[in-house]
Amino acid sequence: MIPFFRRAATVSALCAIVLSQSVLSLSPASAQNRQVPTSPTELKLSYAPIVQRVQPAVVNVYAAKTVQNRNPLLDDPVFRRFFGGQGMQPEQMQRSLGSGVMVDAAGLVVTNNHVIEGADQVKISLSDKREFEAEIVLKDSRTDLAVLRIKDAKEKFTTLDFANSDDLLVGDVVLAIGNPFGVGQTVTHGIISALARTQVGITDYQFFIQTDAAINPGNSGGALVDMHGKLVGVNTAIFSRSGGSQGIGFAIPANMVRVVVASAKSGGKAVKRPWLGARLQNVTPEIAETLGLKTPSGALVVNVTPNSPAAKSGLKVSDLVTAIDGQAIDDPNAFEYRFATRPLGGTTQLDAQRGGKPVKLTVALEAAPDTGRDEIVLKGRSPFQGAKVANISPALADEMRLDSSVEGVVITDFSETATAAGVGFQKGDLILAVNGVKIGKTSDLEKITGEGARLWRIVVVRGGQQINVTLGG
User: Fold this and answer.
1) Catalytic residue among 96, 99, 104, 114, which?
2) Would you call 266 a catalytic residue per the annotation?
3) Rounded Cα–Cα distance for residues 202 and 199 (Å)
4) What is the pTM of this model?
5) Rounded to the nearest 10 degrees, what angle do helices 254-265 and 332-340 cross at?
6) Which one from 104, 144, 330, 398 is the annotated catalytic residue?
7) Which residues cross the membrane (predicted)?
8) CA-CA distance, 62 to 121, in Å (whole number)?
9) Closest CA to 64 of 133, 129, 130, 145
């Protein structure tokens, strides 16, 4: 049987993702102040004081959205003619369940994005059973985090402080608090079983805390806390054959959660992160041998965008990035996490190897420019009808994981009922040409789709591969 991941929330369909194991871990931090029990008396010690302090700050999150069940026979014009609208099914309320953490006394709650994705209504239930309506302040699919705010909050709520997740060591004791299977707030305990899991495949930023504290469906968005009662991570997924806890759960590190919460507190609708302006790749054993490395570690620079912070710092193609601010970098995922959690403004220091010699570079921590996006929805009768498209700016390239050196028009979104979705277009598709006309900006695509045609010859780039398709009008 093939093992798979399950989101730790009860949703309409739990996501399954094939596991790729990783043996990467953080650089060891100081083991000072850690100790094992030395007597039977110490084994009788309790976690109750920690639980009593942090439990009020962990909440249940209830999300609901209205869905219209459509009878597929309605696609048949003969059926529609005889039965009219009688084949339509009544609307249904689809509900999901998760957990959240109060991170601001004014009523700010952080949870997983997949808990509230597509929700029309969101409710927060406190540990004392009181319920509040909540609004979605910010959603960040790249980290699978979302920030909610309790509506009309008239009191100060209990909150959890952030720990420095970089201080964690494998073997540290942690508590997981959430609402598994909807049975009510539950506390489980375990240890940090691994750090810096970078090939889990759940979010864009692959750098998870792994724990054997029992995490089950409904725990998504709940707290992983240390023995000081501080938040070290937000529980997000489990690795399971059965759907229940099998001792391998994953949490988003608190240092990443802190970045998303800070963006929400500043009033932003999107998370602002530093932009490097370079594309990095893994170092394979073959590349390591070519570079004369003892182990295949680091992040190899394969592209540098002109006028980007990377270019201005002097970073060059074929440089091997080995550390950021003194923290070792094992692969591009580790670098992206470290870089993304640096605060905007100021600078960061990169250690790299160039031609076998060490170099140190200072990179400015700047947000990617987002000028000239010109996002529009295409309405003309064409295979693109209903698609939202935009010019590729550095910010959009960073957001959609595109090569920042690419220019053109990309599909950023569309509704499920859009013609573009029906013919097979996907979010992130780069449109290069239509009917022999090069597409350089959104106005080019809007113009040609507004003219109509009986046949559409389209050149698309998807996942780095160019695809030529021909569609009827």
Assistant:
1) 114
2) no
3) 9
4) 0.75
5) 40
6) 144
7) none
8) 8
9) 133
